[in-house]
Amino acid sequence: MKRSTILVVVARFLIPLIMLFALYVQFHGEYSPGGGFQAGVLFAAAWILFVFIYGLETGLRVIPTRVIYALASLGVLLYAFIGLLGVVMGGRFLDFYPLLESPHAAQQAGIILVEFGVGITVATVVMLIFLMFAQRRAMTDAAERNE
Amino acid sequence: MLLLLLVVALAVLFTRDLLKATLLFAIYSLTIAALFAVLDAGDVALTEAAVGAGISTILILAVLALVPRHEKRLFGHNIPALIIVFITGAALVYASFDLPVFGDPNNPVHVHVGQYYTQNTYADMGVPNMVAAVLASYRSIDTMGEAVVILTAGIGVFALLSVPVRRRRQSSTTRASEEDSSS
């Protein structure tokens, strides 16, 4: 693949900014538009841009496939765990009030934690889907070369 | 802006080049995201811009790297399909007569739980963004279901695409690349 200097320089400048914006969207979600879903997609977009510039192998060195599988499940598990924590501490499933003393702080902590779980799952699943298509392409190419 | 949406949608319908259609869809998503932003729906606008214009375009491009770029030309008309589309369209138009009047304060959306949310969200949890409060706290079981659905989608794509490439598939992709280079 031909390397374009402009693309590389602009992408190197943009990738950290996109990631920072994703984190802002994730953790500022109760005050401004945003939340786990949007943040996860933005974070995955930054990674996909990284893969476009540096290649899939380098991208997988940043986050190995096993880590992607584990994190995709961990996000949902974190969500369910927060829900069960509410049950353990004397409330109902996904009831955030028993988590902390002050009701407002408890609600905000619960919202931030479950949104974080959603963010992890969305980011890794989008990465996984992209990875699957990219690897499929590599597989078909290799099969054609072997013919 | 609605006119622009209509023009882009028609252009998507009439183009045979799938790459062009994908990019037109991205334009469509960006336009509709701007429309949501104008309507003060910040969360929806952000989602539409990130998911509709960004990620789904990239994923469709990734799929286009696997399949031929041009749509196959079909000849003649598929009469049963036409009948089904006509009946569905007629049913939708008929159902639209039962929709509540636009902007009526007695509409279900205004008299049901929505009113409770707008009045009590800040007192209940001190969160200014009502969308986040409804999504993550009032309706958190729904959101958990959504997260599970996303995980399931990932598992589905993984199950479909991680199997080894078969012989028949190879021949169809080589034919596709020949078609691509000849056109």
UniProtKB/TrEMBL annotation, chain A:
<dbReference type="InterPro" id="IPR007182">
    <property type="entry name" value="MnhB"/>
</dbReference>
<protein>
    <submittedName>
        <fullName>Na(+)/H(+) antiporter subunit B</fullName>
    </submittedName>
</protein>
<feature type="transmembrane region" description="Helical">
    <location>
        <begin position="7"/>
        <end position="25"/>
    </location>
</feature>
<comment type="similarity">
    <text>Belongs to the CPA3 antiporters (TC 2.A.63) subunit B family.</text>
</comment>
<dbReference type="GO" id="GO:0005886">
    <property type="term" value="C:plasma membrane"/>
</dbReference>
<feature type="transmembrane region" description="Helical">
    <location>
        <begin position="37"/>
        <end position="56"/>
    </location>
</feature>
<feature type="transmembrane region" description="Helical">
    <location>
        <begin position="109"/>
        <end position="133"/>
    </location>
</feature>
<dbReference type="Pfam" id="PF04039">
    <property type="entry name" value="MnhB"/>
</dbReference>
<dbReference type="InterPro" id="IPR050622">
    <property type="entry name" value="CPA3_antiporter_subunitB"/>
</dbReference>
<keyword id="KW-1003">Cell membrane</keyword>
<keyword id="KW-1133">Transmembrane helix</keyword>
<keyword id="KW-0472">Membrane</keyword>
<feature type="transmembrane region" description="Helical">
    <location>
        <begin position="68"/>
        <end position="89"/>
    </location>
</feature>
<keyword id="KW-0812">Transmembrane</keyword>
<feature type="domain" description="Na+/H+ antiporter MnhB subunit-related protein">
    <location>
        <begin position="6"/>
        <end position="127"/>
    </location>
</feature>
